Fold:
Amino acid sequence: SQQGEEDPQALSIQEGENATMNCSYKTSINNLQWYRQNSGRGLVHLILIRSNEREKHSGRLRVTLDTSKKSSSLLITASRAADTASYFCATGNSGNTPLVFGKGTRLSVIA
Amino acid sequence: DAGITQSPRHKVTETGTPVTLRCHQTENHRYMYWYRQDPGHGLRLIHYSYGVKDTDKGEVSDGYSVSRSKTEDFLLTLESATSSQTSVYFCAISDRVGAEETQYFGPGTRLLVL
Structure:
């Protein structure tokens, strides 16, 4: 069953605005990752945050992790039309079990 | 999508026919995965492989079988396709599982079962 649950399911913003997506999960994790999927394409890894980290940055992406609340957020600053995509969180455990993906948030950035 | 190809990219078939999807990688990664993606369900793991001839079931394995006879190829077979197996199928690879795992995805195969 899916571990991560993204919120909102869909988000529509104007170009230049910030976009925030959230992910909640149920069990303890080793790390949490975010992936992007452009329409008709496979998922692409964006960023990984470990369970002992609270915040991580990569370009216009900022990810936070709150293990006490079992939640993470992905912030995309100064959004562009090219950021239009679906965004998925995935949780990784320390054992030999594969990543578990959430259902995704569809982001539309309107020029 | 570099290093991972899926074939065919599109397929239309009839209920009851067997279908085999192929995933080929040039990265020499140990782990390979098959997912299906459906509206409202996100990405669900069908089967995965942790080495040649070593496979395990995922969340939605019923009606699917897999084989991995070479490191580079992971085959997904629908023995007798049903309309509920209409979906987009993605293959993914990684060089580790669990902690610090990052997956790399193929371009997907759109399957329509009539």
